[in-house]
Fold each of these.
Amino acid sequence: MLGVVIGVAAIVALTSIVDGASQGINKSLATLGTNQLNITAMAPDALTEQDAEALAKLDGVSVMFVQAQNEGTIATEDKRVNARLVGVSSQYFAAVKPEIALGAYLSDSKFAASAKDVVFGADAANDLGLTSDMLGQTVKLNGQDFRLVGVLDDQAGFGTGGRVYVTLDAARKLFSQYPYVSSIVVQAETPEAVDALQVASDRLLRDRYGLGAETEARYTITNQASLIAAVSSITDTLGLLLTGIAGISLIVGGIGIMNIMLVSVRERTREIGVRRAIGAKQSNILTQFLIEAIVLSLAGGVVGLILGQIAAFFLAIIGDWVFSIQLETVLLALGFSLVVGVVFGVWPARTAAKLEPIDALRFE
Amino acid sequence: MANPVVELENVRREYLVGDQVTVALDGVDLVIEHGEFVAIVGPSGSGKSTMMNLIGCLDRPSSGVVKIASDPTSELNDNQLTSLRSKAIGFVFQQFQLLPNTTAIENVMAPLLYQGISSKQAKQSATEMLTRLGLGERLNFDRNRLSGGQQQRVAIARALVTSPDIVLADEPTGALDSKTGAQVIDLLKELNQEGRTIILITHDLDIAASAPRRVFLRDGRIERDERGSK
């Protein structure tokens, strides 16, 4: 019965982990949008701002922005840490819309005037010990003065935490790698147009660099849909592993129940004999013991369900996703324990039913 | 006039113990009429338990014919045998054999429920039967709260509730003190006077003496078949 408890608890907890984790991942990815293509440089001089401008002119492109990034230092008067400095073009904040905790984005309309403004990711702000009263104050990036205008929320999305955002113009001055950029993001007008845009972007870049169709490019083009697919294949594998553990526990639990039932049939042999003598058919005895096995297994299932939900509750706190009791999880847990009860209860129940009444009555 | 409820014709029952054949009943003929009160008497090993099992449809003969209420049992499958047993026979056991974790009324209801009778009707019949046997106040007592005599009366109620042709009582006084035992025998006599067939299996000659007909068994054969009170 302990096996059934563990097995069902594992099923309940794993459903919740898989649900919660994919919820979290999908939420982070959704902030980027499914109609985006990320073109990432595989070498520092692989992509340029001119490439980006050419890409923006392709048919079906609604938004384009670039990021240029490099390691750098960030400092206040009394603290200095390393961070990833990211220069973004004007449409970045409008397109990505990361959640902001304090202050404001680098303004889109007055982007040129924002050249000395900086927005911190949540982790970078933490590392430097920034507080809300420091909004508008000066921080130093690679030794140059910038004005802190905003801090992103720690839920702002995948990879934003440790970054520090400035305008592309500012980035040029901070780490002088003009005209090279680290990544270009182009957004198709509709999610359906993403694949065609991916082909068109690749062809355009190959033309610009004189690469044949078979030559390996120094950039990669990924779309969000394939990223989501990759991530869900990871959660699927995790789910499969936990399903295996749950399955083994349920089999062990089932064997335990079978054992309990066989002992019970033996201990109650005389009772079976009396029941047969007063008119119980084999089928009555079979049903009686099968129901007992199911009740036993369901009891284990209910305990497992409760323990599993408690585990899921704490996992949700740790993993920072929303805890909820799903009807499907409850039905799944009870369904599995029912099946275990039936499968492992049949043999003992048959043994009981097949006892000869006289042998059963005479049994000491 | 003759209305036999039990007929044994040249009944033989052998058991295989290891590789040795033991003959428990060795060609027995016996007819019990409706409304009789018969004691089957013998020491242990005489074959009386085997005879009880055959009459009670718990077992089938190796050869010969056993007819219960004119039905031959040897041709019946397990389900048919169970159904004949349920309809024709009420068992009273030496150790009462009340079902564990059940109340008096649940014990008496069980045979009716196995016959497929609705629980409401079974409850009513069981209540009437227990009340008749003086246990109307103890319907919901479980067996730990009933004395030996009370437990045996519950067992008798359970045997009677289906209105069987035969009440088969196997050493019904064996686990009772002599006073309570006498009350149980009186109850069986009373039931017999109401027209029920009573078959009493015992090794105790004093108990057997209370029956108007006594069949003595020895070594698998009928030694004597006496009628009339001593």
Note: The radius of gyration of chain A is 32 Å.
Amino acid sequence: MTIETKLGALVGGLPTGVSEGVALGTGLAEGFDFYDSAIGLVVVTFNPEGVSSVDIADGYEERYAQRFSRPLMRADAPSAWRSYIPEAIERGTPGKLPVDLRAVTDFQRQVLRTTATIPKGEVRPYGWIARKVDRPRAVRAVGTAVARNPIPLIIPCHRVVRSDGHIGNYSLGGPHNKIDLLEHEGAIEGLKLDL
Amino acid sequence: MYGAAGATGCPELGFQLLMEDLKEALATDLDNAFPSVVEFMGTRLFWGLRRICGDHQEAEDLTQETFIRAYRALGSYEEQRIRDLELQPWLWTIAMNLGRNHLRDRSRRPTLVEMQTDVGCDDPELVDGAAWDRRLDLLNRNQRAAVVLRHVVGLGTGEIAVVLERPEGTVKADIHRGLDRLRRALEKEE
């Protein structure tokens, strides 16, 4: 066997982590990891741009597959901002944590960025957000944007309530979680605990 | 795995057709086609890097980073530019540029999403992998890169000249001298 032939044979298989690493690094797949929250275990998904979704852990796979088309892989978030995730969940605001809102429309993104400014321990009506984004009559559209928030807990849509003081609906597991969260944040007083 | 040029220097027709199909797919639907690039080109890229840098983990990191950079670059290219690419030398140009700066930049490069289980470390090395690392250590950096790109990866000398940014005549001389050293090392072992 010539030395050239021997060199040509110096090829094995592709290491098992490479394809997955490339998929995650390009964002063609998303990573996910589990975190504790005031309403129990949640799944946080992410890509190199930032955190892209939060869901309650129970049954997240099916819901993720229905909502997003990308494959999902258990992974560590980028170390540059991994440590900010628990804090963002606890404080209910992104802070230094990058969030990936590319999947929503410009209007929805504006609504969600405004929602993210509501301080812990306080609530705001949908109309307040509508005014903040210069669309005072678009209260219903604001409601839809808030309901479709892909990153609940971190973008605190649980702090948005109806103007009549009713608590309103909540996509993350149902209204009981909204009550639990507002109670946890000391913001439940004066609210009407029905829809 | 695709058929590489190997020792003959003539890429198989099937390989060329595959590259053309791959480029067409990349030009029209990057996201769906890109995993096929990793599948078809990842093996030679990884093992080439593995032989050049001599470290399994380093080669794995470089392979991943090369593909991630390639994907980002392709996303910014016009369709025709993708169709005109010489895919394998282009990928190797990215890899070698990364390799040059890799150690220096390692501590400050942006961290990517990382797999939780370090599965790559469990992959078996080739049976005589360590022996070839020792033999290839006898070559200087240019000889080693040229020999590996020519005979492990299967690039032509003209392509290697572009990838390594060295004249083709110099590349040929590097390959010749590199193979000579390897031959002598093997003779000593026998």
Note: Strands of chain A lie at 30-35, 42-47, 50-56, 72-76, 124-125, 160-161.
Amino acid sequence: MATLVGGVTTSHVPAIGRAIAQNLQQEPYWKPWFDGFPPVRRWLAEVRPDVAVVFYNDHGLNFFLDKMPTFAVGAAPTYENDDEGWGIPTLPPYRGDPALSWHLIEALIEREFDVTTCQEMRVDHAFTLPLKLLWPDDEVCPVRTVPVCINTVQFPLPSAARCFRLGQAVGDAIRAWDSDARVLVVGTGGLSHQLDGERAGFINRDFDRAFMASLIDDPKWATQYSIEDLVELTGTQGVELLMWLAARAALGDAARQVHANYHIPISNTAAGLMAMAPA
Amino acid sequence: MAKPGPKRTIPGTTLFDGEQARKGYALNKMCFSFNSAHNRAAFQRDEAAYCRQYGLDARQTQAIRERDVLGLLAAGGNVYYLAKFAGILGLDVQDLGALQTGLTKDEFKARLLAAGR
């Protein structure tokens, strides 16, 4: 059976792409963020994943409001990045893993997650930048990938509890996959930030800190909140913590922290990073 | 089955729900088209004609013309698509933040830095 080696959760702010392209990683503004990654990369070199299942939210590259799936799973041999309209460089295509994709699709629908399946799917910065942060020296991402997209564009969004159960189902499916592959789960987005409205610039450090701690100590803690609660507590885009919850839930009941970093701000965002391993 | 309750009010925040998505469909569809450099160039050649092509209403067209971010949100714009419009103008999300809060960009950035202290 496949091995679920652990999970990484990280912010995915587009400005990170610009900073990488302009080689600003050691500039004072960026250093506290980028310096969080070397310990995670060392751990990845030890656990040697072959494939990454990436929970992320599309921001209007692949999906528009004409068809907006709540949960979508990629089932393509390759995934292309593309122009998102705001000038960050396009990264090279990502290898898929259709066998794992279809295994996940079958397992999820068996568990009553009626996902949308995508044999063509473009992946935006929320998918590409976290993988670039984990493997900065590889021009082409060295692991195969399966994108799992959760809608955070158009309300109503799936609840935190529902996203947690989705993550549990993905984790169970990975562990039951008849393969010798080593699988990493990734959850991208957050932490607290709000881009739109008079409350733009909202950040909630206390909540973010409590949320990060909860992923180790009490992983279902955030599922007590409604989506509206989470928007109020973390901002309209802070609700992307749903991806972190799904990734954490995939790891099983107990997980240990491998590494964590938290820094305010990147662009408008309180930026977080965690690496976790099943305990 | 429980009836949906009244909409939750969160200060300074509009949830992009079905009502907003219906109201803003044409505006958001136009902004979604700005993923393409060809379409961005077409918009810049003749903004009014491009807005007409996508069927924006008078309020949406005026908010585009005036770069009125809060007006665009009120007219059903979604921030992820509006960010593509902002990209054409060379504005980043901190520019948008400043425009929506009535701060200068430096003041807006200072507020974010303060949140980390």
Note: Chain B touches chain A through 46 residues (CB under 8 Å).
Amino acid sequence: MTTFFTAAALVVRKDLLVETRSREVVYTSLLFAVSCMLVFAFGLVKEGRVVADAAAAILWITIAFAGTLALGRIFDRERQNETMRALLLAPVPRAAIYIGKFAGVVLLLLLVEAAVVPLVALMFDAPLFRHAPLLAGLMVAGSLGYAAVGTLFAAMLARSRSRGTLLPVLLYPMTVPVIIGGVRGTAALLQPDVDIAMARTWLVLLLCFDAVFLTLALWLFEPVMTE
Amino acid sequence: MTKRLFPVAVLLCIGMFAYAPFLIINAPYESTMGLVQKIFYFHVSTAITMFVSAFVCGIASAIFLFGRRPGADRVAVAAAELTVLFGLIVLASGPLWARKAWGVWWQWDARLTSTLVMWLVFQAYLLLRRFGGPGSEKLSAAVAVFGAALVPFVYWSVNMWRTVHPTTNVVPSLDPSMRGPFLWCLVAFLLLYVLMLSARTALENRRARLDALYLALED
Amino acid sequence: MDFTSLTLTNVSRHFGRRRALAGVNLTAEAGQIVALLGANGAGKSTLLSIAATLLDASSGDVRYGRMTAREGGHALRGRIGLLGHDLYLYPELTATENLRFFADLYALDSPGDRVAAALASAALQDRGNDPVSSFSRGMRQRLAVERALLHEPRLALLDEPFTGLDDVSSETLRARLSALRRRGAIVLVTTHELEAIEPIVDAAYLLGRGRLERLAAGAGSLRDRYRRQAQA
């Protein structure tokens, strides 16, 4: 009998394998993120200088948008040949499948962030690496929260009509605390008089969000995926 | 018993709302804002009702998903619609108050912003139900459960977001003599909510019975 | 975790106002190949999904031996094999990778050998390292059948397994199903290819507008009997 974590690991490995073959999601997400940053630049850069705090906003909003796109594509793939049904049919706790998908989404988000963070630091003259560990903590905690909610909703919607438009409509209000926490926490690290305590408080909020919503998602995955 | 109670409750509710303006007029004036502040009696009562409704929706959805009771889903739909409705009233009355009291329509007040986020979540519930296709009952139930759990986080994050920048618009603390009228209005709105919830749920129940009859007809 | 019968008692399923299944009663015993026949949209796929625990019945009872799906949990799912319309294969992965993934997911012993045997059975030994997206319809169908039966399920549910198969592959599939039957499996097959299933079928049912009835024994081929009853 496959254990919970073995099953989740198998799903992640399979997703990585599929992705390395086509690299579709990685390339499109990265390119989209850069285009997104560009669009923001036109809006938020005035006379060659970026409006205060804009760098943090650009970073997080870009990741949120890229994340939504990636989520849609990842679950569209499982829908293509109805492989999601085959996964649900496997003799493993269904929550393990959720964790496997979740881990894949987190990895993708971290990959996109690895590209976007240096780009934002460069293009918007933002000293993002001054407090690298704390920033990394914020990025990881935010990604976990976003992925926890996003994976559940994207999985749920995979069989729905209007899934393309409904995913953002559902996801953005639901991840408002993550966006606020991420942007304000990063902004606290970017301001001239760095506010470490504030950044830490935001990190705590993000971690609490992660804990609560990951647990909820694990509970809800099984009842929601049986029709 | 509930059938006989309903008309009595309706009359009671009408009575309470009829009397409310008198209470509000006779309530003391708030020092800084004067007459405009009196919108607070309805505004805050509706806000509280909206959040109560959000929790009702979340709990009913959880019962539907885990207890597998289809009746709970019907309550959840009704509660979601009412959350959106009462939320709309809050979001409409808030700016009216803000405009007169502080000169701007919207200044990202923590509570109003939180209400907006919750309103969007439950509006998304309704959209999912309408456009999600078959099987969207369970999906929207998950949205409702998440939405109810989101309330404290939205409050926490939006509050922190706002208090970092000190604002001149502080909601006044409650004068004791205002408490009476406020509680009256609050109870009136909660009663109205309960009445609307039961009426809407009854409609949903009838729709379900109609579906069952259509199905039976095919046999 | 093994059972010797699948019993559906008064199973109904509706989607809103549309009834897909109405009071279906079906018992299939171990060592039986049961054919489910019917026009498109008759509810065959819905019935298979319910038997596979992927779909809940709106009312009625589904039992595996004496267990319900809820009692069986995920261990029960390990004894069920489903082949759907959409084949359940990852086109970016090779045939071997697809099979190996499911073999690992089902925690099979000596997965490497099982995968090799499955590829041989599907006559795809030479194409094991080619991505499934490069396969023809018939090849994908053969691979999909093997994926569904990889773990030697006790209950095999196959939705239109003969689609896209040539005569030789059909014969191989029939032999595969017969071997399953000999090992005591319950095999439920929906198909339009009546001639393909006829040599091995033990019992046949007709599903029409959600209602299930046993195909009456009588003169003529399976198709003749089907036509007669379907028109009645």
Note: Residues 80-152 of chain C form one domain.
